[in-house]
Amino acid sequence: MAEKEIFLYKADVLRRRAEAKTAMMAENMELISPEETRRMLYELRLHKIELEMQNEEMVAAQARYLALYDQAPVGYFTLSEQGLFLEANNRHDRAAAGYRT
Predict the structure, then answer these.
(1) HSE-up (13 A, CA, CB side) for residue 91
(2) Residue 69, exposed/middle/buried by CB under 10 A (0-12, 13-18, 19+)?
(3) Residue that wins the pLDDT comparison between 74 and 93
(4) Nearest-angstrom CA–CA distance, 43 and 3
(5) How many Cβ atoms are within 10 Å of 89's Cβ, its own excluded?
(6) DSSP 82
(7) Assuming Cys at both sites, which of 17, 35, 75, 78 could form a disulfide with 87, CB separation 3.0 to 4.6 Å?
(8) Cα(59)–Cα(8) distance, rounded to whole angstroms?
(9) Residue 98 above 70 pLDDT?
(10) DSSP collapsed to 3 states, 22-72
(11) 71 CB-near residues (< 8 Å, 6+ apart)
């Protein structure tokens, strides 16, 4: 399964779990006043903006991590659980380029 497919699968599973929890907490929407509806809509919009800001921070942190990984003075490898090489940083790439068989 490709990385993007895994991400989409996990997002779909998370969505279904959230929908199930929402169904368990379902309220009779007719009993909610217009004022309460406006307040909840405001809270949802606010929460959405907070999540977007957290996502921006997470993307920036990921970029910093990747830069540290790639520019490390030693060779790093990322291995799968089965011990297969998934990724190597730039130091390893430079060392491998000088290696002759």
Answers:
(1) 11
(2) middle
(3) 74
(4) 33
(5) 19
(6) T
(7) 78
(8) 17
(9) no
(10) HHHCCCCHHHCCHHHHHHHHHHHHHHHHHHHHHHHHHHHHHHHHHHHHHCC
(11) 89, 90
Give the C-alpha separation, 88 to 79, whole Å: 9
C-alpha–C-alpha distance, residues 72 and 15, integer Å: 37
Hey, CA dihedral for 26, 29, 32, 35, is it positive or negative?
positive
The DSSP 8-state label assigned to residue 99 in this structure reads -
Determine if the pTM surpasses 0.85.
Answer: no
Contact 46/52 with Cβ under 8 angstroms? no
Q: Identify the residue whose tokens are 């003075």.
A: 73
Instruction: For tokens 């949802």, name the residue.
Output: 44
Instruction: Please enumerate in sequence order all residues whose Cβ is within 8 A of that of 79, keeping only pairs 6 or more positions apart, or say none.
Output: 85, 86
d(CA 23, CA 15): 12
d(CA 47, CA 42): 9
Per-residue confidence (pLDDT) for residue 39, from 0 to 100: 94
